[in-house]
């Protein structure tokens, strides 16, 4: 009650800043108090969004996933940037470095790392074979592309292979958003294939596949950072994983 009264005179922006500065142990109290103060002020859509932004709990066990996705997003960004010319390449590399560093720091500091080891141990078999399949698929794409001279197809088809490998991982890891990540990577790959089919240059396809795939992977990490849950959903996730 005292906490709620102390927040009553603060504006929304100040509330958000204060919530970010307070110790993690007070997060739940802050969310309850801030929501109780803000909701009576207005019922408009933007106020509901603001209340959602005050959600103190990050999604369960997203730190490892966020950091891995950010790392491979950086690799894809380099793939797409190195074939650009002059100042465009420099600008892309600098922007990518800044974005990647920012996401890695935020993922390490803000995301929840609980249960990462348990999730891996539970899903080790699926993880292993999914990545073996991905590796074989990439090797086949590179080999066939080099044998046939279809070099412009290689980055686009690799994006499709990488996207497909996310689907079997979604349920065992309790990360159903991997289905969206995989689907969007496949869309990027299909767009690259369409460019290759139309006679686009190898560098053009590589830029689209590289920057597009990086954007998808980084966007998944960004989604982890801005989305929250009202409480830990560990039991549901563990139950779903056990049922698989």
From TrEMBL:
Keywords: Membrane, Transmembrane, Transmembrane helix. It comes from the Bacteria. The chain crosses the membrane at residues 64-84, 90-108, 129-147, 153-170, 182-201, 207-226. This is Uncharacterized protein.
């Amino acid at each position: 009650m005292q906490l709620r009264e102390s927040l009553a005179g603060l504006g929304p922006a100040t509330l958000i800043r204060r919530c970010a500065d307070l110790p993690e142990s007070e997060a739940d109290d802050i969310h309850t108090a801030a929501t109780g103060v803000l909701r009576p002020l207005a019922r408009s859509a933007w106020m509901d969004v603001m209340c959602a932004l005050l959600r103190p709990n990050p999604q369960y066990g997203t730190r490892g996933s966020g950091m891995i996705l950010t790392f491979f997003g950086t690799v894809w960004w380099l793939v797409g940037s190195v074939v650009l010319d002059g100042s465009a390449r420099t600008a892309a590399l600098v922007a990518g470095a800044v974005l990647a560093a920012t996401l890695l720091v935020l993922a390490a500091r803000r995301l929840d790392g609980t249960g990462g080891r348990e999730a891996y141990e539970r899903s080790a078999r699926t993880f292993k074979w999914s990545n073996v399949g991905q590796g074989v698929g990439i090797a086949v794409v590179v080999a066939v592309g080099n044998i046939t001279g279809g070099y412009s197809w290689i980055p686009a088809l690799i994006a499709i292979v990488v996207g497909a490998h996310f689907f079997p991982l979604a349920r065992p890891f309790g990360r159903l958003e991997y289905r969206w990540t995989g689907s969007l990577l496949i869309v990027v790959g299909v767009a690259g294939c369409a460019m290759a089919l139309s006679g686009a240059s190898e560098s053009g396809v590589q830029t689209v596949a590289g920057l597009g795939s990086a954007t998808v992977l980084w966007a998944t990490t960004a989604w982890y950072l801005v989305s929250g849950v009202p409480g830990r959903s560990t039991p549901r996730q563990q139950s779903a994983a056990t049922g698989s």
